[in-house]
Amino acid sequence: MKYIAEINIMTRSEILDPQGKAVKLGLHNLQMDTIDNVRIGKHIRLEVDAESEEQARATVDSACKQLLANLIMEEYTFDLHTA
Questions:
Q1: What is the DSSP string of 23-72?
Q2: Which tens digit of pLDDT belongs to each residue from 4-37?
Q3: C or N: which end of the chain has fewer Cβ atoms within 10 Å?
Q4: Cα gap 57→46, rounded to integer Å
Q5: Residue 8 exposed, middle or buried by CB count within 10 Å (0-12, 13-18, 19+)
């Protein structure tokens, strides 16, 4: 069965996000002063062939831990659904 994984990777909240800070400054320069705490992350969508949802979840989790996310600086979440 084919599954679609929607993965969101964000810098941990205790780590400075320079991209987010730059975007926040740009928004404030556009008079959008009510916007605060901007964080920039990554969104990854991938397809997984697996015999079960549990196997697909394990595969996606392993991909995130081993390659897609830097676990020292980032955390991740993902949703899984059938294709």
A1: HHHHHHHTT-TT------EEEEEEEEE-SSHHHHHHHHHHHIIIII--TT
A2: 999 999 999 999 999 999 999 999 999 999 999 9
A3: C
A4: 12
A5: middle
Burial 40-79 (b: 16+ CB within 10 A, else e): eeeebeeebebeeeeebbebbeebbeeebbeeeebebebe
- Work out the pLDDT band at 80, boundaries 50, 70, 90: very high
Strands of 41-49's sheet in order across? 41-49, 2-11, 74-82
CB contact at 8 A, 8 and 80? no
